[in-house]
Amino acid sequence: MKRHYYEVNPSASVENKYDLPEWEHPQYYGGHSPIGDYLIYTRHRDSETLYNVNYESILESLNEAYEASGDENEDNQPYDFRAGHPMVGWVEYIIVPRGAPDSVLARAYEILGALADYPVLDDEKLSEAESEEASESWDNWARRDVESLIERETFGYIGTGADEIELELSDSGPLVELWVTDNGLPEHETHSDGAHFDVDEIAETIIEQVNVNPYSILTEFDDWFVWQVALTN
To answer: What residues are paired with 22 via a beta bridge?
Structure first.
C-alpha cells in the first residue's frame, strides 16, 4: 500500500474527510472482511523487523488516541486481525472502524503521512528490536560458529571453555577491542533478514588478541612430542 499525498481531501465524503484507504475485499478470501472500514497497515509472517515495529507502534498509537477520546463504544476501537495466506502463511491487518472518533481518524492520517515521508515510525523502538535480534543471532548461531572456527584454525590449541577464552558479551577483559557496539556485541551489519556477523573476521581477531600463531602450533607439538619421547628412554 503506497500513498502519494496526505492532505485532508475536501472532495471526499464527510465520513472519510481524511481520505483514508478503505478496506477492499481480497480475491478468493472468505474470512473477516470489514467492508467500509479503513485499512491502515499490514504485515505478514515473513515481514522484516522494520514493518513489525511499525505495525506494533501504529496499533499502540491508534489505541492511545481511542482511549484518550473517551468513546466507550468498543465497535469504534481500532483493532487488528489475522487471515491465512497461501504464500506467506498469514497476513495481519490494522483496521480503523468508520465510526471511530475523529481524533483516531486524525491520528491515522498523521501516521500515514509520517510514513510517506520517512519509513520508520519510531527509531528508538526499531533500534531496540534490531539489538535484540542481533543478540539472539549471536547466541543462537554466530557465537557457536566463531568457537568452531577458533578451534579449527588453531588445531584445538585454543579452546573456548571457561578456563581458556570466555566469549561473553562484556566490555572488559582480554577481548575488549572486539566488543565495539553499544549492546556489547561484535561488529555486525543489520540486513533485511536480521543481523549478519562476519564470523571469520571475529575468529581471526580473537586468535590475534591471544597472540597465537596457528602455523607454529604443529612445530610446538612436534617439539613437545620429541621431548616426551626423550623422557621415556
So the answer is: 38
Element containing residue 60 per DSSP (H, E): helix 49-69
Distances from the Cα of 138 to the Cαs of 171, 186, 191, in angstroms? 16, 9, 15
Tell me the pLDDT tens digit for each residue of 110-136: 999 999 999 999 999 998 888 888 888
End-to-end CA distance of the chain: 82
Q: What is the DSSP letter of 70?
A: T
Of 173, 51, 184, residue with least CA distance to 120: 51
Distance between CA 218 and CA 35 in Å, rounded?
74
pLDDT in tens, 175-227: 434 444 555 677 778 776 778 888 888 888 777 766 555 444 444 444 444 44
∠ CA 75-110-123 to the nearest 5 degrees?
Answer: 110
Per DSSP, the three-state class of 62 is helix
Q: Residue 79: phi, psi to the nearest 5?
A: -155, 170
The residue type found at 144 is R
**CA nearest neighbour of 73 among 46, 51, 98:** 98
Rounded to an integer, the average pLDDT of 70-97 is 93
Nearest alpha-carbon partner for 213 in 157, 140, 173: 157
